[in-house]
Design brief:
single chain; mainly alpha; 7 helices; 88% helix; 0% strand
């Protein structure tokens, strides 16, 4: 009976984590859309909804620590709880970066925009969202080979960062009045790049969960 209850608790942990992941996915999608469409109202909504992501993390942390204290799990059961603890922290940080992008959207008012840069940021944001979505699928499936493959998507996100930074820099050289706009672009692509890093972290935690090995992908 105790084992049945324990497995039910673990299942609840997994479900809550996946729900948190979907909320973060929504945050990423909306914050990028708000930035490239200059929708400050949508950006404010993203900022307000961050409380929900934070609440998910608090609940997951509380439940995980409760399981450790009361059930004293070992082996793969313990790895399950540790994986949820660590991965939920990565999700929460993704949410924080989504909020930072939303704040940049609110901050930008009358600045001149660079259409080519914003088009590239839109594509980067789309692929970051896909990266996070694939990471959540890896978490659900627990496939180590797939975790390695999905983690490799981070290289594409890093390339976006380099390319957009170079593109924005060239535009600013041609028109120094774009320096303020460029600052916000550099911040936004930095936040997106960091979201990619945290997605890769979750892939690493999947490998740990399945193998017990802590590795760097």
């Amino acid at each position: 009976m105790l084992r049945v209850q324990f497995e039910e608790d673990l299942e609840k942990l997994h479900n809550q984590f996946y729900a948190m992941g979907n909320e973060v996915l929504s945050q990423i999608n909306r914050t990028v859309r708000a930035f490239v469409t200059h929708d400050r109202e949508l950006a404010r909504q993203v900022i307000e909804d961050d409380a929900e992501v934070n609440e998910y993390e608090v609940k997951l942390e509380k439940k995980s620590l409760e399981i450790i204290a009361l059930q004293q799990p070992v082996s793969q059961d313990l790895r399950t709880v540790i994986t949820v603890l660590k991965a939920s922290s990565d999700l929460e940080r993704m949410g924080d970066h989504a909020v930072s992008i939303a704040k940049a959207t609110v901050r930008m008012k009358g600045e001149v925009r660079i259409e080519s840069v914003e088009d590239a940021i839109s594509k980067m944001g789309r692929d970051v969202k896909n990266f996070v979505e694939e990471t959540l699928n890896v978490y659900l499936n627990g496939n180590v080979d797939q975790a390695y493959a999905v983690a490799a998507m981070d290289e594409k996100i890093n390339q976006y960062f380099d390319d957009i930074r170079d593109l924005a820099t060239e535009e600013i050289k041609q028109n120094p009045e774009l320096i303020v706009t460029g600052r916000d672009y550099f911040q936004v692509i930095s936040y997106l790049e960091r979201i990619g890093d945290y997605a890769k972290n979750i892939c690493e935690w999947v490998v740990y969960f399945e193998t017990g090995k802590i590795i760097e992908l």
